[in-house]
Amino acid sequence: MSSDEITPLWQPDPARATASRLAAFHRFAAEYYGAPKPAGAKAEADYAHFHRWSVEHLEDFWSALTQWFDVRFTTPPTAVLGDATMPGAEWFPGARLNYAQHVLRHGEDPHNADSPAILHVEEGSEQPRVTTWSELRRQVGSLAAELRRLGVGPGDRVSAYVPNVPQAAVALLATAAVGAVWTSCAPDFGARSVLDRFQQMEPVLLFAVDGYRYGGKEHDRTGVVAELRGELPSLRHVVHIPLLGGAAPEGALEWEALTSAPAVPVFEQLPFDHPLWVLYSSGTTGLPKAIVQSHGGITVEHLKQAGLHLDLGPEDRFFWYTSTGWMMWNFLLAGLLVGASIVTYDGSPGYPTPDAQWRIAAATGVTVYGTSAAYVMACKKAEVHPGRDLDLSKLRAIGTTGSPLPPDGFRWIYDEISTDVWLASVSGGTDVCSCFVGGVPTLPVYLGEIQAPSLGAAVEAWDASGKPVVEEVGELVVTKPIPSMPIGFWNDPEGVRYRESYFEMFPGTWRHGDWITVTERGTVVIHGRSDSTLNRQGVRMGSSDIYEVVERLPQIKESLVIGLEEPNGGYWMPLFVVLAEGAELDDALRAEVREALRTQLSPRHVPDEIIAVPSLPHTLTGKRIEVPVKRILGGTPLEKAVNPGSIDNPDSLRIFEQYRR
């Protein structure tokens, strides 16, 4: 093992670690709830002991957390965990609360009223438009009152076809305030993709923009909105948000008219497990799963993640590049939940220059910045130098997710941003709208490794027989419930699809579908999705390991590897590559790819064929897809292998039909 694999890339300053909210919470839980006292001798041991306590004493841990963050139950719970059975765990039975009330309480303090709640940046500009806490409360209060006047109440579904703009946050909070159920899609989704999601929900109201800006262009969506109105018979009202200045369609309500009144928000007090919002799986192989999460579950889980694992508080500015079609937008609002200012952005991640996101962070004084692993690697390939060219002096933490961040991405952060920045690579899922494993402000950062499992998350790697393994690749499982686990899927009354999704392989235990390695240090390495496993000669391999090596080569823009079991018992592993401009897939490049995989991974990782394709398919949130391609290669007709409405470029799949086995 090389020295850079065992020497941390970064160590937190001891004084800063001690002053972190996680360390303070640890001391509180030790004093009042029986958690092991911090020894202070070694951070890894301290956190490991605290984490073990948090999952072995779930009721004490979550009780401590709700007290620490002053969760306001208007009706107190009769227990913390009424039933720990998965699926179906019952959290805080009898309790009543409201998610939006916990967000907007930060605007109640007169000293905080005029400070920024949201700083919004539009594409091509670095000057933010500020929404203060008092203004946010007023707009939500006005809109919530109008929603009630329109007859929208607890249990009704409210949908939104909006980008990452302040109006989206206001609309969600107003929806939550009245007890309705929120669901959203980004406006770059086509009509079919949106209908696949919203038709399941039968919304009574739709917030819709007239268009959005991306890549230096304006994209009109009035035609799509008209189609949505025609195909959603449950709609009683449409609210027009004129981002491009367009007139409201006939019969639509105007956003400004609904949000202009001086009003104090009124919050419906709801059961802990009352639906807050519905998120969706990618839906690449069928209708997207409509994943229901609760007011209480999201409130306590996001307080934990934002307040402890990202160490966010009122003095912070929090930015995560995302769209309203990705769970990270919902997670961005967790910044508001702990009183931080959030930065919203509507536009391309790399326009007008590849370092556009870093420029936003610099211009708005972001302290905690999140992005995708793909963007970090794109910056590396574009040879941008944000740490040299921009003032990022206020930036103390960087989060990455969406796919595993390769070791080269870790190195680039510390080479090109700062040697003293905390890199919080995280992994979780839309399924829980949170992280199973991620950042810990008191722990060191090791090359290519996620710092640790999150508090309260009983994460293990299991082999095929259901036994925990360390320093071996295994299935990511969660052996005990987490409050933000879905309360179910919409239109799945018997829970059949829910159980099949997570509990079929190991009954009673959540199996997430990722390959991971838990190291002896307690860190975690993500290898990719286990449902598209590479299993060659009995050795399981993660596709992300191959992508990291292959895409390091400047001639290759993107790659996709598939492992296909053949009817004759053989195994075919092709590597599809999208070439950089001007590159050619000749014998020399093929040899270079094979040699890189052989020397940096193993001979088993060398593909049987290397095939150039013009483009690769992705989900609508930008993740490359493997399972539908594997199905097509195995002979499944394209129309049965994938839901075309879930793909960014369905035509990119047709190229794979000629390689069927």
From TrEMBL:
GO terms for biological process: lipid metabolic process. CDD domains: AACS. Residues 548-623 form the AMP-binding enzyme C-terminal domain. Residues 116-481 form the AMP-dependent synthetase/ligase domain. One of its GO terms (molecular function) is ATP binding. The keyword ATP-binding applies. Residues 47-102 form the Acetyl-coenzyme A synthetase N-terminal domain. SUPFAM superfamilies: Acetyl-CoA synthetase-like. InterPro entries: Acac_CoA_synth (IPR005914), ACAS_N (IPR032387), AMP-bd_C (IPR025110), AMP-bd_C_sf (IPR045851), AMP-binding_CS (IPR020845), AMP-dep_synth/lig_dom (IPR000873), ANL_N_sf (IPR042099). Keywords: ATP-binding, Ligase, Nucleotide-binding. Pfam families: ACAS_N, AMP-binding, AMP-binding_C. Belongs to the ATP-dependent AMP-binding enzyme family. PANTHER family: ACETOACETYL-COA SYNTHETASE (PTHR42921). This is Acetoacetyl-CoA synthetase. It comes from Streptacidiphilus jiangxiensis.
